Amino acid sequence: MTTRDMAAAVRDGTTTSAALVDAALAAAERNADLNAFVTLDNDGARTAAAAADAAADKSGALFGVPIVVKDNIASAGLPTSAGTAALKDWVPEADAPVLARLRAAGAILIGKTGLHELAFGITSNNATFGAIGNPWAPERFAGGSSGGSGAAVAAGIVTAGLGTDTGGSVRIPAALNGIAALRPTVGRYPGKGIVPISKTRDTAGPMARTVDDLVLLDGVITGGETSVEPVSLAEVRLGVAAPLNADLDPETSRVMDQALAALEKAGATLVPVDMNGLMELNGKVGFPLALHEAKTGLVAFLAENGTGVTIEELAAGIASPDVKFVFDELVLGPRAIPDAVYEAALHTARPQLQALYAETFAAHKLDALVFPTTPLPAQPIAGSDMNVLLNGREVPTFQTFIRNTDPGSNAGLPGISIPAGLTSDGLPVGLEIDGPSFSDRRLLAIALSIEAALGPIGAPPAR
């Protein structure tokens, strides 16, 4: 069942919340080797389910449905570690608003999912809590930084959950785990109660097995409509941007070619666009914003939320070598971003990046850009922390996997990753669409139609 199906079944008495929660907890146990969870709240979830079944009013859009939430999103009564040792015992007094809104609609939190340490990476190979495996191939990484939520949804433990996305962190694990995810326009969702990286780039985002469930969760979080009508692809113009569709793994390229052909057959108009200078301009924005804002954002968050931890103590406890390097050298250390570089990124390069997107959408009358979410599928956990192979070249893991998701993130645009198909090795490939700022609901309507045109990819091997 989908999330929407589950809520309807609880409302009409076909099933109970207790049965759904028990099934989710049993599935979590079966998939324990994936290491998707930092905290699994068996007792709390069962108590909440019993209360839901006893309630007279079951009208909530998510009533009685088990969900998961990434462990950098504050949860009252449960630890919120952000995947790092210094915060593993921090128990917030209140839910982050994004979680509070899901609970107010009746959702039941069964646990907090793992992530790349402090959300600073894309593999979710976490030296403090362990690596998170991919349900399609457990020896391969689940992607990140929201790898635990991606793995939990893909493995069938739950139908939906929350991650966070700074440069691709809900869309990358969605693509690699064969599920759907929405990065909303920055500012549509409240950011309070989420351990930050960049105030300019950060946002929470829903992850689910179907686009319709993304529609449902987005409506609950924003207080808007919880459904949209799919659009006719004959009315849709999709830009195929050259920088985002080049230098792909051969199997990713094959799956994307088939997906684009299916969209054309369904009536969509594909429009080649150059977007010259996109990657160069993006390079002037991404790291300067994230690395400069991480320090000020974390200092404020740690103090304002009563964690009892300083940023120096936080950094001292980092165990993952890649994240430790970032903090010791680039956030707190000698190579920290100068104020002038940050100001230029925020006030000059970012507006230029946003203008490039706006001009591209307008000049070609585009509804969205379409491209592979990642240039290659999930890679082996062992040996992939720093570099991976792409078309016979050794390339940096982080920069390669965020290559396509990062530019839209820096522009603050909405993006949706949808399963496009499987490689010959049975690994998922994601197709992403990015739309103009605040076109989220239109983008979801288009995604519904794309999902229908491409068809399901099936489920991971039974475990």
TrEMBL record:
Pfam families found in the cross-reference section: Amidase
InterPro entries, per the entry: Amidase, Amidase_CS, Amidase_dom, AS_sf
The organism of origin for this protein: Nitratireductor mangrovi
Transmembrane portions of the chain: none
Keyword field contains DNA-binding: no
Entry similarity comment: Belongs to the amidase family.
Record's signal peptide: none
Listed name of the protein: Indoleacetamide hydrolase
Stretches assigned to the Amidase domain: 20-444
Matches recorded under PANTHER family: GLUTAMYL-TRNA(GLN) AMIDOTRANSFERASE SUBUNIT A, TRANSAMIDASE
